[in-house]
């Protein structure tokens, strides 16, 4: 595993030898210039390298692997078995990645199968039987198809592990390893992860070939453009504070994060009396219901979504103006993911975190993680409790790695 020192990041899609179809798809999608992760990852991926990209959702990472895959994909006439497998932690993210990939494929017929749990298995079996170019799915269901032999991996030349840290957190390591072992050895492997804990590094060492590491976590646009505040509040006054924050902020759309499913249900019941455009979402809800809630949020029919961290990762809805951490996330990576639901691709967003006495340590950890202090907020007439000690955040020292420019990146799909 080595930090990439091979080439410089590209500043324009014109520096790549992209097909005219892809150029017009990018134009239609409104992608005028590559985001930092795209600028670094796409040229390397087109060169056939194995790459570890440290970046979160909201930074354009889906397109960073979808573009090189689409550019090198054989047509269905040439190959009826899957050529690329994209493994993601949640069903919602699988749908989202498939949608974004379809959007970028515009103009070229591309068969994409979403293989995620909670969805109709027979439909998936039929689709695989009819021929598929790209598979996007969750580790459990992909593994299930491998065991049934309904998913053939002999033609796979690229595997993407998206949000690898999250997949390992959920406990998907055995399924991921089996998927990787089933795919041809000389495939290309791209791994995307917000963080690179030891588990992710071990996975990369075992299943990737001399991977190059690119780190876009420092210039994390999504978090940089988000105003981040905290309130100190007594536990039994949180719901009063929430009412006042909603009244003051009048959010266009907001996600309110709770720690537990029961807490989510409780808060949803309280809020839905006063706010008819309110919905809730957590892991105990049936997949169909979760999809329905997300669609209503996307369509702007829901203004408030009360949720657990199920939606904290990956969901891309650009109209979310506010994030409210009703319960402070205990894991600071969850904080980054929750807050990243707003401020997508550099848009403005605002996040509030409620801190009750005794939770100061969580605040400190969050500030260390994002290398920035959260601003203390107060609402007039609302009696705040004593603030927790504020952490000293060290200045960021690390700059982006320098690379040598490769003038025209050739498409060299690694062939067996
Ligand atoms: P992602 O991080 O892949 O979830 O992408 C976040 C959002 O940014 C999605 O709505 C993408 O369509 C959008 N996006 C990705 N790349 C670009 C780009 N180069 N320019 C503008 N928007 C982009």
Describe the structure.
This protein folds into two domains: 2-219, Rossmann fold (3-Layer(aba) Sandwich); 223-376, Rossmann fold. Strand 13 (322-325), helix 14 (332-339) and strand 14 (349-355) form a beta-alpha-beta unit. It has 15 helices and 15 strands. It has an eight-stranded parallel β-sheet, with helices on both faces. Strands 11-12-10-13-14-9-15 form a seven-stranded parallel β-sheet, with helices on both faces. The protein has helices at 20-29, 36-46, 61-71, 91-104, 121-130, 139-148, 164-170, 173-182, 198-207, 221-224, 238-249, 261-274, 287-298, 332-339, 360-370, and strands spanning 2-3, 51-54, 84-87, 112-115, 134-137, 158-161, 188-193, 212-215, 226-232, 254-257, 278-281, 304-307, 322-325, 349-355, 375-376. The protein is an alpha/beta fold and 416 residues long. The model is unreliable at 390-412 (pLDDT under 50). It binds adenosine monophosphate.
For this entry, give a set of tags.
416 residues; 7-stranded parallel sheet; 15 strands; alpha/beta; 2 domains; Rossmann fold; binds adenosine monophosphate
